[in-house]
Write a structure and sequence with these properties.
The chain is of the alpha/beta class. The protein has helices at residues 17-30, 47-50, 62-72, 85-90, 92-113, 145-164, 190-200, 219-231, 253-261, 276-281, 290-296, 304-316; strands spanning 8-12, 35-39, 54-56, 74-79, 116-118, 121-122, 133-134, 168-169, 172-173, 175-177, 203-206, 213-218, 249-252, 268-271, 286-287. Helix 2 (47-50) links the parallel strand 2 (35-39) and strand 3. The structure holds nicotinamide-adenine-dinucleotide (NAD) and 2-amino-3-ketobutyric acid.
């Protein structure tokens, strides 16, 4: 294995929901020129494209990833390119190809270029047989293809760590709520769409039942957790390092709608479940993040009330 090629950071899937916020946070930390945003698509005017280097990069192109890392002096890669659950279940083959194949490409490049890798997992690793408050060690028997790809992603990250010494880390993100970029086609998208609809139309048709309760987090907290994990010393991280449950929020779709109604007079929400209800029903209501909390000391700042305030403020001022 060659030495780490440099101090720069490469982000795949940088135009997506998380990438949009993560690129900004990384550029504030490391400087604009040190953080290379990449995605399979171009988007003129997008902050990840305008604010610093941007490259078109397909994550299935292992040689392309290695070439960029060697030529540009990259030492760390945040691998965000993936298909989310709703989009993934519509095309399971493509979901497997991108989510599993893309992760293998990134890990292969990391092996060759000695990169540190952040590769996110998801609460979708859990299936209907996990406890409704899912512990770190609960069984991973997802019933979605997306969830299967996330279990496989954790297994691959563990394998490259064990066999090749690649420094791999990851978090099982819950549904993430943010306003800077739209969500990319997941089951938890309702928890973002509802804010835009409330402000624009005063009404939202929610695609899960009112009592549907899922683990959730405001994006600023997810970014902070990600950077805290990546800053943590290697020897503080245990077996869960490729897919930590983290402490997060848990609220129902109705509780979210009510919190918005309290702030927007006349807002109404109807609940018309579609196929995404099945995916939501297969996931836990909440997760136990105590292992992460003890190994790298992190807890969220935003609760439901402050998250709703921040979303309404952010959308209104953008
Ligand atoms: P997103 O769908 O918003 O963005 C993904 C990006 O990947 C898109 O910009 C897309 O153009 C790009 N992409 C797709 N195929 C590609 C390819 N072959 N090569 C390069 N880029 C490609 O997703 P996100 O919400 O930003 O999620 C990022 C990661 O976090 C994913 O692994 C996802 O599973 C995980 N995650 C997200 C959430 C959430 O609520 N957002 C929750 C749990 C886990
Ligand atoms: C999705 O709903 O697909 C994502 C996730 C929880 O992984 N937001």
């Amino acid at each position: 294995m060659s030495d780490a090629t440099g101090d720069k950071v490469l982000v795949t899937g940088a135009l997506g929901q998380i990438g949009t916020d993560l690129i900004q946070a990384l550029r504030e930390r490391h400087g604009n020129e040190s953080v290379i945003a990449s995605d399979i698509r171009e988007s003129a005017g997008h902050p990840s494209v305008e604010g610093g280097p941007f490259m078109i990069l397909d994550v299935l192109d292992t040689d392309g990833i290695s070439r960029i890392c060697q030529n540009e002096g990259v030492g760390t890669i945040y691998h965000l390119a993936a298909l989310l659950s709703a989009v993934g279940e519509r095309d399971p083959d493509l979901c497997r190809r991108i989510n599993v194949g893309g992760t293998i490409s990134v890990l292969e490049a990391a092996k060759v270029c000695n990169l540190k890798v952040y590769s996110p997992s998801s609460i979708a690793v859990f299936g209907p047989d996990s406890p409704k408050h899912a512990t770190q060690g609960a069984a991973l028997n997802p019933t979605t293809v997306y969830g299967e790809t996330k279990v496989m992603g954790e297994a691959l990250a563990r394998e490259y760590l064990g066999r090749f010494g690649v420094d791999t880390r990851g978090i099982r993100y819950p549904g993430l709520i943010s306003y800077k970029a739209p969500p990319g086609g997941g089951t938890t998208d309702y928890a973002v769409e509802i804010f835009h609809a409330a402000l624009k139309e005063g009404h939202y048709e929610c695609f899960v039942r009112p009592e549907t309760r899922l683990p959730m987090l405001y994006m600023d907290d997810a970014i902070d957790a990600t950077l805290t994990l990546m800053d943590s010393s290697d020897d503080s991280l245990g077996d869960s390092r490729v897919g930590y449950n983290i402490p997060c929020l848990s609220f129902s779709a109705e509780e979210l709608a009510n919190a918005i109604s309290e702030r927007i007079e006349g807002f109404t929400c109807v609940f018309v479940p579609d196929v995404r209800q099945e995916y939501a029903d297969s996931w836990p209501d909440s997760i136990d993040g105590s292992v992460a909390e003890s190994e790298w000391i992190w807890s969220p700042d935003f609760d439901l009330s402050s998250l709703v305030d921040e979303m309404l403020r952010g959308i209104s001022s953008s």
